[in-house]
Amino acid sequence: MGLAKKHIQELKSQDIGAFLQENTVNNAYIMGLLENLGRLPSSFNGDWLVKLLDNENSGIRFLAVKNLGKLKNDCFLSVLNNVAINDSDTNVRREAVSAIGRLRKLNSKEILFNKLKDEDPKVVCQAIRGLLVFKGMEEVDKQLKPLLNHQNEMVRQVIRKEYFSSKETNNPQKHTESYDYLKNIVVHGDTIETMKLLKDESVHLTFTSPPYYNARDYSIYPSYKYYLEFLRNVFQEVYRITKEGRFLLLNTSPVIVPRVSRSHSSKRYPIPFDIHHYLMEMGWEFIDDIIWEKPEASVKNRIGGFQQHRKPLGYKPNTVTEYIFVYRKSTEKLLDWNIHQYDDETVKESKITGEFDTTNVWNIDPCFDKVHSAVFPIELCKRVIQYYSYKNDLIFDPFGGSGTVGRTAKTLGRYFFLTEKDEKYFSYMKSKFSFELGDDCPAKFMSFNDFKGTIV
Q: What burial class does residue 28 get, using C-beta atoms within 10 Å of its C-beta: 0-12 exposed, 13-18 middle, 19+ buried?
């Protein structure tokens, strides 16, 4: 049970240290007190906090350091430095360095310089944070700039942003806008060649499911290596045409290529995990892994044989999940920057209403189609598009398939751009789109050459 605010205020007006010394209190009481001290006046006596730095409970030591930092009194500088050097708990050490940084005192620079050599990269980051207050001072910049070559990626990212950032892109188009010649267009052609026609930073969101490796009649590749390299080339182009800081959601799953005969084994390929490192190398930042869970009755039965013999090594569970990996195009800008590009009305209209997913496991029934053997459920598209785009954004699917991404985007007040190489699916998409009177931006279906002629 938390301590009453009135009780804490009364203690703050007295000598808390004397109160604790005169009264027998347990660690739970001390933790509650430290967690709820709130803002501390400059006259606050922090000596009793220093005594708590020897407490065996690391949580108490952490909160004692945190409250010492609120005082911003450099008389505690040596105490905090001692904690940063000697405490056995890394979280306590990090908080001590953070507290030193919050002092914003010139006499803390040398201490923070020493922390740049710490083996804990989070301690280094806290030291950098404290030193950036003095950015522009020659001795500070001289210490920080070489960290661009630090072995830790978090440290490198901070230094790159602070000292080596390009700041602005050369994109003449507003972040919220998209080119008219891309709005509600379906192109019959190779997706890579089509994307090469597009300008940098043309689309807001890509949601796609690439062809399964040699598991469907429409996806035959000479080798798994060739397949992965093809996907790498696709998503390299997607990266280029994606607007700064915007998202790629990739729906994939391991796939089984059936065995040639009973004397041979089938082969299972871990597609999402093999393509992941390619995406990271080209600059995509991994954000989340969402699990799409299907009813067991809807998937192929792999457990039947084991149910009969129950022999170890023969266990093969029914696969009821697929992955939706969420990536963001690398940027030095925070998400807030992307959001603030939109006017208040668009933000308001784009807000999620009603229920929404609170975990990364989405229970959605699959969709079956007589023409296309692997179509997106509308519900899946709806969630992705609502969670990761705004009204009037341009949504891209490089493997258009049956066009579910496009149709869903349109119903949600977004524009779409799709590419599809297979003539059968391209024609099928035409039949699935409805052309209603009064539609101010109807879907247009184009050959590669016809689309090429529209590029301005």
A: exposed
Query: 288: which 2 tokens?
Result: 């989340």
Q: How far apart are CA 162 and CA 401, in angstroms?
A: 43
Same domain? 347 vs 198: yes
Q: What is the CATH number of the domain that holds 44?
A: 1.25.10.10
Global pTM value: 0.79
Q: How many domains does the chain have?
A: 2
- In terms of domains, do 435 and 328 share one? yes
Domain presence at residue 343: yes
Contact (CB, 8 A) for 396 and 203 = yes
Distance from C-alpha of 35 to C-alpha of 33, rounded to nearest angstrom: 6
Closest CA to 247 of 285, 189, 205, 306: 205
- Are residues 190 and 159 part of one domain? no
Give, as one character, the DSSP assignment of residue 375. B
Rounded-to-integer distance, Cα 44 and Cα 426, Å: 72
| DSSP 3-state of 111 | helix
Structural domain range at position 114? 5-163
pLDDT in tens, 302-360: 888 888 899 998 898 988 999 999 999 989 889 999 999 999 999 999 999 999 999 99
pLDDT in tens, 177-221: 999 999 999 999 999 999 999 999 999 999 999 988 765 555 678
Query: What CATH number is given to the structural domain containing 401?
Result: 3.40.50.150
Interatomic CA distance for residues 221 and 188, integer angstroms = 20
